[in-house]
Amino acid sequence: MTLADVAAASGVSITTASLVLTGRARELRISEAAERRVRSTAQELGYRRNTLTTGPRAGRVQTIGFVSDTVASSGLAGDMVKGAVDAAYRRGFMLFVGESGGDPVVERALVEAMYDRRADGVVFAAMYTRVVTVPDVLYDGPAVLLNAMPATRTTVPSVVPDEVQAGRSAASVLVGAGHARGVHLIGAGPGVRDVPPNSIAATQRLLGLREVFTAAGVEVVSAHRCPKWTPEYGYEATAELLRSHRPKALVCFNDRLAFGAYQALAEAGLSVPGDVSVIGFDDHPIASWMRPRLTTIALPHHELGARAVAVLVEMLERRGRDVRPPMIHRVPMPVREGGSVARPRR
What we know:
Strand order of the largest sheet: 2-1-3-4-5-11
Keywords: DNA-binding, Repressor, Transcription, Transcription regulation
CATH architecture of the largest domain: 3-Layer(aba) Sandwich
CATH topology of the largest domain: Rossmann fold
CATH superfamily of the largest domain: Response regulator
Distance between the termini: 76 Å
Protein name: Substrate-binding domain-containing protein
Number of helices: 10
Strand content: 15-25%
Number of strands: 12
CATH class of the largest domain: Alpha Beta
């Protein structure tokens, strides 16, 4: 498919088609109708503009594309980009970052732009772990999903945090501190389907929690599903819980929920961890400002970015060999000890 084919099918000159597809239509006063016609025709015909005209590609050019939704500008997950940059640099690659804002059209355009510029492969990232529809353009070259799982079976591998093990770790911290009764969940549960929409983290954390609690004979007294994992919902769920129970321990499904829980406990005259132990997830910056500092299971953002680049480079090195890498790569989530968990009072 050539530029001339697009021009002919659009009813414009090759020059006009070229100006539209290089983003210069407005500056040269090409009509909006003509611009729309050329762009829609190019998409229908599957035309891809090659931005480099130095001849056939020979070998690797040591560049990796990093396409994200909002991760590049997110303070919480920006370490994923830094981890990817560091890992790429150590392996002699440059990393080019593009942000889509979650717009599928922009996502596709960014991936196409990376491949058109002869990137050796693409890391396709999400700010929070979620199910994504893999853009078909990712199959044009080696690609890795970062912090995302495919909606359908695919040949594109995923790098994700090990949320099931994180749930096990959180439960083990409480069990190790002697908590056997009075445990309540804030954010999700009790069933694995009682979670916010599309929350992979909640489902998998619940699986890990239930596994360890069941093995230790710990009964979860109640669970409070929150539509959003923000402080106000953590506060409301904990305040509601305190109207009918005196908890010994709270498992909050992220640190922002735990922040809200702290406020509700304080208003009820209960201390952390003297009266109630609290544990969270993510190691959000807010955890270090809570008093006492929150014990939490950390999301390893830097390691996630670094692993995604490592997996992609391994794929590049295996090209042409009959080797099938794992489809899911889980990155451990470490425990960050604070002062919010203690042995229960008798």
